[in-house]
Amino acid sequence: LSHPIAGRIIIERVLEDGADFGQNTVGIGTKVIVEHTAINSNKAAHVGHLRNSSLGDTVVRMLRSQGYDVEAQNYIDDTGVQVADVVVGLTLLTQGKLQLPGGNEQLPGESFDYYCSRVYVAVGKAYEERPELKALRDTVLHAIEHGEEPEEGPDYAVLAADISHQIVQAHLKTMARLNISYNLLTWESAIVHAGLWQHTFEMLRNSGVLEHPESGPLAGTWILPFGEGEMQTEEGERSSDKVLVKSNGTATYTGKDIANHLWKFGLADDLGVEFHFIPWGVQQDGRMLWTMRTPEEAGKTGKEAPPERFGHAKKVVNVIDVRQSYPQQVVRESLRRLGYGEQADSLIHLGYEVVTLSAATAARLGVDTSDGRESYAMSGRKGIEIKADDLISAAAARMIEARSDLSEETAAILAASAIRYFMIRFGLQQVITLDMDEVLRANGDTGVYLQYAYARANSILRRLQEANYELPEQPTELPEQLEQSEWELLRHIDAYPRALAETSRVEALAPNTLAAYVYDLAAHFSDFYEHTPPIIKESDQRVKAFRAWLVRATMQTLSNALRVLGFVPLERI
RNA sequence: GCACCCGUAGUUCAGUGGAUAGAACAUCGACCUUCUAAGUCGACUGUCGCAGGUUCGAUUCCUGCCGGGUGCGCCA
Questions:
Q1: Å from A320 (CA) to B48 (C1')?
Q2: Which nucleotides of B are covered by protein (CB under 7 A)?
Q3: Which residue of A148, A434, A438, A503 is most buried, as measured by CB atoms within 10 A?
Q4: Which residues are registered as beta bridge partners of A437?
Q5: CA/C1' separation A220–B12 (Å)
Q6: CA-to-C1' distance for A427 and B61, Å?
Q7: pLDDT-derived band at A232, boundaries 50, 70, 90
Q8: Among all strands, which nt has the closest C1' to A445 (CA)?
Q9: Between helices A511-531 and A484-503, what is the axis angle to 10°?
Q10: pLDDT digit string (tens) for A308-331?
């Protein structure tokens, strides 16, 4: 193999394709829905949620790079117990029956989601001390489920909807700091109120896949028979059957999720359910975010998207942590039993392991670590967590600490890069034991290193331009002998489309492999940079032109790859 | 009890049946009057948890065991 000839072909190809270098066509014409983030709308996001959204947003970009028509959905679970708990908390606060550590009011500078996190923790504690408060939760839950106006007292349903709305707003703001965006918000409340759940239930019942026990522990419920029947657990005998409708007639989360998935696959079109889709707002990247609403909510806004624009996916990817493997399996199996085997096979649970806290980091949060464990689970309910916004802010502060001349904007982009990279560089099955010192590190195998390599490449070309050096129109003749570092770099650039395609297959998505590839590319560029003399001083015109072209090709490849990782590439640091 | 996942250098992790198992961090040492030192180079560090099996060949596949995590709610 002639390195100079192969090298020229590689460079020509990269520069010809430009921003499309690495872009594939396999997915063209195939619609994929990716659901990610999906945080309970009752409290601030924590670092565990960042793993979800970083993986999810990266996967969205990977699939788009393969030509897929991707719809990123953020499913809002706004009808559950967690939202009800905050409603209970706020109600108790107005009645003077609850005290918050740090102050009962929203503090100056405290965002609404942070405030709700405090309320949520306090309510959890209050339930333990005063179990009678749970009656109020039941009242609130009932109000949310039925959405009717009360004859007296607070309108809990409206209060809950208002809280969810504000919390979602806060979550989106947090995610925007990491350059994460969506196409559509879907709401559990909309699924219930538009009647999709009711129709789905009837479909399930009419297909004969449900059972309705009249005696025993599950009397009065509707279940999906599942697994081996009886099983032994630490708490005693249990049925592995999955309850979809509780004995009080309301749906479980999994029940509603089955409805959600029928809709995602376009299987709800003939059920007579009417959803409306209206704009929510423009996001940080200029993309319009849409939201699903029920007919009565749609009302006043003029602009509406046709319903066929959303859903109707060929494939569905759900980014959800592995603890939900069993309910995800139930959803898939339900589709299969309804006769939708193809859709069941096209439903992919991208399961990833959880984020825990290192002993050192847990100790800093005030957790008792005297039992000597290596890691500690986070708990939103107990307030043992690192909040997403705190981590992002700490990372930005760390960047400025390292380089005091950084602009706020550059520091923010570097912080986002560092965190996104950290969250995807581990294999999906690896539990991330998050340590503050490690996640904030800005050298070595980090997102900052990638940005630095890219900025350095830009700097070289900038210097050449400032020196009025004119690059020949086409990379012509390469030097007869290439340096080892030059050839290695060329090979890595050449490998980009294959590496990206391999790691972006729908059924084998592996963001960490992509992260490793990009790190490798940046490292090879650093190697080339350190082991060849400055291009700007090069006297051999053939060598000078080749190296300038090589830097240009590296820059293009890095830029393309960084964008798939969701970075905003920095031309100057 | 059953099911799933993890176990690789002092630490955190890559590793798609194939060659001498790789990075980063940490430690020690070298390199800024040459395009960005958030960089580079070098040194140090491995019974790939243990025992069998399949294979020409196993960190990788299978079985058993040991250690750790998770799931098995009319929560979500």
A1: 30
A2: 1-2, 4-6, 12-16, 23-26, 34-41, 69-76
A3: A434
A4: none
A5: 51
A6: 20
A7: confident
A8: B24
A9: 170
A10: 999 999 999 999 999 999 999 999
Percent of chain A with pLDDT over 90: 88
Rounded to two decimals, what is the model's pTM?
A: 0.97
User: What's the Å distance between residue A449 CA and nucleotide B28 C1'?
Assistant: 24
Token pair, residue A2, equals 């002639």
Task: Say whether pLDDT at A299 is over 90.
Answer: no
Nucleotide nearest A446, from its CA to each C1': B24
- Any idea which residue has 């400032």 for tokens? A466
Euclidean distance between CA atoms A565 and A184, whole angstroms: 21
Confidence check: pLDDT of A145 > 70: yes
| 8 Å CB contact between A423 and A36 | no
Confidence of residue A303 (pLDDT cuts 50, 70, 90): confident
Using the structure block, give the residue that is written with the tokens 């709800």.
Answer: A268
A507-CA/B65-C1' distance, Å: 33
For the stretch A461-510, pLDDT in tens is 999 999 999 988 878 789 999 999 999 999 999 999 999 999 999 999 99
Write the DSSP string, A85-145.
HHHHHHHHHHTT----TT-SSPPTT--HHHHHHHHHHHHHHHHHH-GGGHHHHHHHHHHHH
Nucleotide nearest residue A233, measured CA to C1': B1
